[in-house]
Amino acid sequence: MLKFITIVILLVIVFCGYVFNEIGKSPSQEELKKYESLPYFKDGSFQSPQKLVYDFDNVRNGPATWFRFLKCSPFAPKQELPMKKLTRADFSQNADDFALYWLGHSSVLLELDGKRILFDPVFGNAAPLPFMVPRYNKAPVKVSELPKIDIVIISHNHYDHLERKTVQSLKNSHFIVPLGVGAALRGWGIKHENITELGWGDKYSNQGINIIAETAVHYSSRGFGDRNKTLWNSYILQSGAVNLYWSGDSGYGTHFQKIGKKYGPFDLAALEIDGWNTGWPNTHMFPQEVIKVTKELKAEKILPLHWAVFDLALHPWHESIDMILEETKNTPIKVLTPLMGQKINPFDTKTQKWW
After folding, report:
1. CA–CA dist 231, 221 (Å, integer)
2. Tens digit of pLDDT for each residue in 159-188?
3. Residues 132-158, buried b or exposed e (16+ Cβ, 10 A)?
4. Which residue in 326, 325, 330, 286 sits closest to 302, CA to CA?
5. Buried/exposed 80-100: b ≥16 CB within 10 Å, e otherwise
6. Angle (nearest 5°) at CA 156 between 304 and 300
């Protein structure tokens, strides 16, 4: 009996250790004190520019319980999605001046001015346990098959945007992260000098590429008791050739119009289109709001993100992109819909409906 109890205790310890490692470290109280002078930090937490609204009695296709994340979603595709499978051999030795690979959900490999920039790389599931929030399909490329990545940009600390194993496998890259997220990265073994934390309005420059962090209507949380202890960012990327906007996760807000006036027009806006629900109406954007945001940003083209990989909001997997295409039918807005893993030049590559 004693042996059995010992084994159980050891298994619990191993399990808890695994989960805590996946969650990652939060900023210390000393670190949080450094943010007290910021206008968007109050009472020990970062503040959304607009208060998030929740109406769980009005959840579309509900109820929204955690138990649904333990099994395959009824809204998932019925067969494997088409994609371009990639290996290291598919990547040229030198990065292009402007090209990108959408790798599914919000993960994108951008080639810009000869550098490779990886956004929100997640190649597994979207939870601290491997059997929770499963993907619809495997990613089009394994982390081990990626080319050398110069910069990794993280929008916020949710599991569908920040993955421990991937971060550790890219430890020699330079990480651009929101304020506070550096604590988790350092806990996972990333060197301090390889991390740049940005607050809203802060800029990082690297050989002609400017990366500016800006506002978003969202929140952060990775474990118990850490809600809004780290920031969440959208990003502007400026180079000699292009001006890009990356929304990260955001509900609709007045910040889009302000960003459009200050930094626009944009050659391309990568915008989240999925994850919306009447139960949390301003945590993510509804498709109709995406079109409004595109106009406010003065963007010529949009790359839809945050879809086709996870069911996070209880709606059919292709519903959002279908709505986006319908909304843009009689507008000058061009919607890029590459296959996962397909290399495109947003200026001249024609994409098509593949679903």
Report:
1. 10
2. 999 999 999 999 999 999 999 999 999 999
3. ebbbbbebbbebeebbebbbbbbbbbb
4. 325
5. ebebeebeeeebeeebbebbb
6. 30
Q: Using an 8 Å Cβ cutoff, are 284 and 313 in contact?
A: yes
- Which stretches within 109-205 are classed as H helix? 164-169, 182-187
φ and ψ of 14, to 5 deg: -65, -45
Q: Where are the alpha helices (DSSP H) in 208-351?
A: 255-263, 287-297, 319-327
Residue whose pair of structure tokens reads 């690979």 in the numeric block? 101
Instruction: Output the CATH code of domain 3-344.
Output: 3.60.15.10
What is the strand order of the sheet 108-112 is part of? 195-198, 174-178, 151-153, 115-119, 108-112, 98-102, 343-344
- Under DSSP, the state recorded for 25 is P
What DSSP letter does each residue of 69-137 carry, written as one string?
A: GGS--TTS-SSPPPB----GGGS-SS--SEEEEE-STT-EEEEETTEEEEES---S-SSSSTTSS--SS
What's at 277, amino acid-wise?
A: N
Q: What is the pLDDT of residue 4?
A: 66
Model pLDDT for residues 93-103, shown as the tens digit of each residue: 999 999 999 99
Q: Using alpha carbons only, what angle is made at residue 201 by residues 196 and 206, rounded to the nearest 5 degrees?
A: 45
Q: How far apart are CA 222 and CA 226, in angstroms?
A: 7
Q: Using alpha carbons, select from 236, 286, 233, 287 the residue that is nearest to residue 260.
A: 236
Low-confidence ranges of the chain (pLDDT < 50): none
Q: Tell me the helices (H) and strands (E) count for the chain, helix number first.
A: 7, 16
Per domain, the residue ranges of the chain are 3-344
**pTM exceeds 0.85, yes or no:** yes
